[in-house]
Amino acid sequence: MRISFRKRFLLILIAAMGGIMAVNAQDSISNQDYSFSLEEAIRYGLENSYNSQTASKDVAIALKQKWEIISQGLPQISANAEYRNNLVQPVTLLPGAIAGGEPGTFVPVTFGTKQNLTATATWNQLIFDGSYIVGIQSSKTLLQITENAKIKTDLEVKKAITDAYGNVLLAEENIEILKNNLKTVQKNLDDTQVIFENGLAEEEEVEQLKITQLGLQANLNNAVRMEDIAYDMLKVTMGIPVENPIQVEDELDQLSMENFDLLLLSKEINVEENIDYRIAEDQANSAEIEVKLEKSKALPTLSAFVNYGAQGNSDDFTFFTNNQTYFDQSILGLSLNVPIFSSGMRSARTAQKELAYEQSLLELEQTKNQVKLNIQTAKNDYSFSLENYENKKQNLNLAERIENKNQIKFFEGLATSFELSEAQRQLYQAQQEYLQAMLDVITQKAKLENLLDTTTYSENYDN
């Protein structure tokens, strides 16, 4: 059927538009915009951060290793096929007297056929092995170690995202403050320049304000660069490509107020529930299992096997013809291995593992006390951050009032430009300290929450 030019043109146009839409759709996926609150950023990072994904794969590997160990005690079936072509058959010399020859002479003969084909299937079954029983226990411990490591990684990712997110908010707030400060100083500089040109002020006063203006401009330029770095650090921590744009939804002052939680200071947990203690406990359990493994090597091992096979023989390659004859063969057997004497090697290895186990118990006790100390220290740091926040907030209010009074006095001729600059520097320092105090409230709370977290592996994944 012939298609008119008009229809052909429309088909080409539709195909081209479809291709453009597909490309645009692909571009929109690769350049996806992200916008997160802190809580959303944490949820996203727990699923997509590089560390969380690596830890999840470690758990998956441990699950496979567990099954690998279990399967060693299950039936193992293997098959083997072997084809032989004796290009030159071996010759055997028989006494000549057997064939009626002279005594002392030999007759060369060949045995068997030139070509052979053998196929065998074997079933192996482990009946008893002490190390296998210990291996089952070790697989459970290994899985527990990786699960707790995953929880620890998630807690670290949560804190890292909180720190990175807070640094972004700090950078944005810092830029806004510097812009406002620069705007105020620029206005003061312009007004003072006019007063100087009218002969009512000295040139030193203009120069002093100019120094302040240049310093603020340099700080602003650096703050803008630091903002880009802070955003990139947040992206990397969350597992987002650095070339993708990202936005934060929270504000520093609001987020710091939301992190005021005095009840957290009175929260108590059993040290045994702390993730650092649980990891140390896993290491101790692993060391104990290694002791059992060395002791199990002194026990006998028993296994059984049965095989069945067939063998074909021929001088020519006739193994797939109907008249080829195959001879069956089958073996049933038991294998018992009993360790008797190792010249003290096994006892020396066992003693090493027992000493390593005792070391792990000491480390577990040390970890227990260290966790208690860390919790107490974190509570103190969080409490100080709350008090410091209130202190720096009051300092900022006082610094703003002092700077405002000196600015009025300066234009009334009651204060010098040096006094005004000192008041401004005091204000700028108070602003930076207040920003840092807000960030400390957020980060110190995250640190304390990590130590008090009692999330189990199953709970962590159900959520």
Automatic annotation (TrEMBL):
The keyword Signal applies. InterPro entries: OMP_efflux, TolC-like. Residues 168-195, 361-440 form a coiled coil. The keyword Cytoplasm does not apply. Its main location: membrane. One of its GO terms (molecular function) is porin activity. GO terms for cellular component: cell outer membrane; efflux pump complex. This is Outer membrane efflux protein. It comes from Christiangramia forsetii (strain DSM 17595 / CGMCC 1.15422 / KT0803) (Gramella forsetii).
